[in-house]
Amino acid sequence: MTTPKPKTSQTMKPATAAKKLGIYLAATPAEFQAGVVTRDELNAMQAEPPQWLADLRRNGPHPRQVVAARLGISVTGLGRAGITEALTTEQIDALRDEDPEWLRRERATQADVRKEAQRAKEAEAKAAAVKAARTAGRATAAKSGRK
Question: What is the pTM of this model?
Answer without folding.
Answer: 0.69
